[in-house]
Amino acid sequence: MLRLEGQERAEVWQRLMAALEEYATRVDTHRVTPELNPDKIRSLLKRFDFEAPVPPLEALDFAVRNLWEYQTHTPHPRYYGLFNPAPTTMGIVADALVAAFNPQLAAWSHSPLAIEIEQHLIRAFGRRFGYDPATTDGTFASGGMEANHTAVLTALTQHFPEFASTGVRALTGQPLLYVSAEAHHSFHKAARLCGLGSEAAREIPVSHDLGMNVEALASQIAHDRHTGLAPFMIVATAGTTNSGIVDPLAAIAEVAWREKIWLHVDAAWGGAAALVPELRGVLAGIERADSITFDAHKWLSVPMGAGIYLTRHPKILDQTFRVVTPYMPREAAGLDVVDTCLHTMQWSRRFIGLKVFLSLAVAGWEGYATALRHMVAMGERLRHELQASGWEPVNQTPLPLVCFVDGKRPDGNKSAYLDAVALEVVTSGKAWISTTRLAGTTPVLRACITNYRTQPEDITALVEALNWARGRVRG
Ligand SMILES: *Cc1c(COP(=O)(O)O)cnc(C)c1O
Prior knowledge:
Number of helices: 14
CATH class of the largest domain: Alpha Beta
CATH architecture of the largest domain: 3-Layer(aba) Sandwich
Distance between the termini: 60 Å
Helix content: 40-55%
Number of domains: 2
Low-confidence stretches: none
CATH topology of the largest domain: Aspartate Aminotransferase, domain 2
Strand content: 5-15%
Strand order of the largest sheet: 1-7-6-5-4-2-3
Shape: globular
CATH superfamily of the largest domain: Type I PLP-dependent aspartate aminotransferase-like (Major domain)
Bound molecules: pyridoxal-5'-phosphate
């Protein structure tokens, strides 16, 4: 029963293909959001007691039907959310191939093609960010969280060579890393996971434009050094989650260089600007980063999860992750190749890079630039249509992410009102949109173009939904 045979297998493949095609062509017409009712879902699951086997087509249909019903449809063109894309066709194809061939990337000799494809991509993306391909190294990861965690580990290993063997307890001063108050919270988690504690992630205030305040950074580092603490890493963000702001990368790179500490640029979403010639300038300075996080499962629209960690220090992943074992394959000993398990925190590892490789191979850099440009144009359009209806954008970024308040209401910048508007829109199923707080204080509505298929009529529909919600929320 684990492997289906003959006609039965053929029918399952066919049904699967039909389901994928139907989702690709019809998701646009569906509600964006599901009903949130855990009891209903749990009672659907009751019939699966795993005592009586279910026929394969029935099991498949169950999954398809209820995925339609019970998820926020991130591939929907009216999902204005948190960088979750509509996956590329070739990315879906790749993930299916990977499941079927099931390559094991831990050791090069088990998956030579897969590992060489990933290394080829690492060098190609490194070049886009201005790294020298001769010294570019990196690894694919589950996502930005793992890539950022990897960055903290490599920075620790570089700065405190004894860290790999004796750990943080052996260090003389408390290690500190610096993030802006608008940085992603994966660094607080990473600081914990590295045994530093989340307080080791020092938050530097942001300036008026929501970018890291570089003077505050420099003086905080000086102060911390003076009190015997051990700064080892600065994190700059290229495209903040809240509002798409790019920290002043070149000025931060100067501070890192002067202070001789590791510079990491978290470009999980915004890094895709490197693929669009007229946007490339917003990333100026990123080539000076010791390491970079870039998520292909965000703005490059491949299925989750596809994080990328890049570095221009070719030995550091080895120093950070290599442990010697007697049981791993050794057929490739003597070849100039890398066993992935010696360069990442994962051991058994899925072929993450294929969905990026096939998507990029088919679209080309130019195809991606065109898609990204389109989304930027939709962002501009959204900004204008919002303004025309009395909503007031409050962030300034060339990336397609708009934070805004309601200029037509006296309570239009209050979180109770903005949350109520977002909830009206979301529960109506017309679109998905959210609220957040900029710099931890200013409440805003937030809409991001994450889908290359979002069209002008989808933008208009969002603004109409917001106008409708405005009328429904009491003052
Ligand atoms: C999304 C994001 C992350 C976290 O990445 P995951 O892929 O969700 O793990 C980190 N930093 C930034 C700036 C992000 O946008």
